[in-house]
Amino acid sequence: MPLPRSRNPNAASALSPPAGQVAAAGTCRAIAHTNPASSRATATAALRKLYEGLFVTRDANNRYRIVADAGIGKDDARREVLRRIVASLGVVSAEVLAACTLYEYSMAEIRQRLRAFEKEGWLTKGFLARGERTLMWAIQRDLPRIGQVAFRRKFVLTPMDNFFLYVREAVAKKFRMGSCFVVFDGPEMVAAFTAKRRKTSLAITKFEGDAEARQILVRFKEENEIEVGEHVDRISDAEVMEWYTKMYGRGASK
């Protein structure tokens, strides 16, 4: 999840006042034409500063558009972004929350804001995970629902999914793997595997789980229309032909 950054006043001065024309024309050439003395390189550099400062963005047609003023300060924005992340997770520790923000927030800031959410009456804290001594925070109004919500979906979580950041610590503890695919049977992690991806296929290099987890993997393969198989550590025919061509010349491959 991209986090809001404070707008850099120096970025605006690099292209002020023709910023409004960026949205209309959407090209570096149009920016340069607003000032005959500026070069295309100068306009490109100025536009890059505006883009990095979140003054402009790109639309589906790759044209630049002005970002409307959010009307919110940096501190308030950071607080609300963190609030949305907590709301999407439901129950979370400070350490996992830091990982879910890709460490954009320091632990000190996260704990300070969690305490502020407690004072609001929105969050409450406690040892909410059975068998764990990690302090966790949960939404106050959701406490009566803990343990009461049924979830029976069977699915495969990919390491590219943002939710993997939430379960990464638990995955490492149970399966002793880092970045990997995780097989879920309801809320339970029943298997994990690493794989090499080649276009629309996955070659499994390591699998930890039982036969039932394999069946969930079969459904994952069918739903996503990809090939899933075991990785075979051998040299492919294409690599053999490439080596042969290099060794004996291009004519040998004909």
Q: Give the structural class.
A: alpha+beta
> Rg to the nearest angstrom?
26 Å
For the record, the count of structural domains works out to 3
For the largest sheet, list the strands in their spatial order.
6-7-8-9-10
Number of contiguous helices: 10
Report low-confidence residues grouped into runs of 5 or more. 1-26
- What proportion of the residues is helical, as a percent range? 40-55%
Strand share of the residues?
15-25%
The overall pLDDT, averaged over residues, is 82
What composes the largest sheet? 5 strands, mixed
Number of extended strands? 10
Topology:
Elements: H1 9-13, H2 19-25, H3 28-33, H4 40-52, E1 56-58, E2 64-66, H5 74-89, E3 91-93, H6 94-100, H7 107-120, E4 123-126, E5 136-139, E6 154-157, H8 163-175, E7 181-185, E8 188-198, E9 201-208, H9 211-224, E10 227-230, H10 237-248
Parallel strand pairs: 9-10
Antiparallel strand pairs: 1-2, 3-5, 4-5, 6-7, 7-8, 8-9
Descriptive report:
- With 254 residues, the protein is of the alpha+beta class.
- The chain has helices at residues 9-13, 19-25, 28-33, 40-52, 74-89, 94-100, 107-120, 163-175, 211-224, 237-248; strands at residues 56-58, 64-66, 91-93, 123-126, 136-139, 154-157, 181-185, 188-198, 201-208, 227-230.
- The protein has a five-stranded mixed β-sheet, with helices on both faces.
- The chain is flat, with a radius of gyration of 26 Å.
- 15% of the residues are buried.
